[in-house]
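Summary for the steering committee. The consortium agreed at its last meeting that each partner would contribute one worked example illustrating the joint modelling workflow. Our contribution is presented below. We chose a case with several input lines so that the handling of multiple components could be demonstrated. No manual editing was applied between input and output; the record is shown as generated.
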Amino acid sequence: MRTRRLYRRSLAGLILLLPLALWTASGEGLLDYLRSRAVDETVVAACGRQDYGGSSWRIDGFQSWSGVLPAEAAAPGLNLQAASLPPGVHLLRVRVALRPGDAEAVKHLDRCELELADSRGRRWKPQPAPLKRREFPARCSGSLSDPPQVALEFRFEQDFLLPEDAVDDVAAVIRLGAEKPRLLRLQLR
Amino acid sequence: MSRLRALGWTVLALALLLAMRESTPNYDALVGPLVQRGRSGENLAGRRFEARVDAVHAARLIRYERRPDSVEQRDSSGVWLVVEASARATQVPVTLGNAQLLTRDGRRYAQSGRLPLSPPLLAARELQPGIESRGVLLFELPADALAGAVLALSENRLSRLDSELHIDLGLAVAPAPREFYDLVRP
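What follows is the complete predicted structure of the assembly.
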């Protein structure tokens, strides 16, 4: 009877001590992992505007194509095959407008990325697409001749190749080096 | 009788300990790549990308475009093995950072770096989720090493605890090399 009681106490002690031992050995690593997985993002509804990194951001427009691209959109010199998209692939051009609040905000735009992400966690980076060069720059930081300026609205646009099941589900994700790990998610729809 | 039983348990415990000791993987096996095996023509999925080998060609020369208006060719002291493959990312953009040929004699051949990273090369592409990219992987190796070669694909050269696809190229015997493989007009 006494032996059985001793066994039960030992078992209860093990149930208490085992999680404690695991926590002592790897609790810090688990916390680091959870911290690294946490996403600190600000979600902005379609047509909304949001401050991020000292600038005000909004989606200015987007357009999608599939199949054979319209002749006026094809880049000069490309043959018909290069100007058409494979079945099931869509080209999405996203235009973003931003307004830097001060000179510091303009500096932050040097390390800026635009990606698309869907609700399943998939992400796409901009791709060189077989379309005629756009009327707006492709980078948040503009170009030497056309840089963003304080208090003035600046537009840039980038092209993405997406599978059919993601076209209606994606949002634009803006990351600024100075704001990491915070990011801005601008809903397209 | 009870002593005999105790001895039996002891022998059994020792046998179990010995079996555990012998079957415990070494450090390299514990932290090594997680190998997924498949055959040419099959879609094989790893953690971050999927890939399929569509065709394999052996050639003595490779023709490629050095600049838009200049076609050149490269020979080899062995043969060129051209693997036509398709790949796509699963969740986030990835690049095939490591493609090697594993031969029957245990050697590993890395991709040839003698050609510029041009669009036909799969290694030059950033794979996007759900978008199939087709391209070629180029290797140079002795002609007698072709038979039984296996293609190993991973995101990084040190793919520790990450997927590595091993695709049997189906070369039971070494294929006779063609005169040249044209990367400009395959």
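The first helix of chain A runs from residue 2 to 37. The longest strand of chain A covers residues 55-66.
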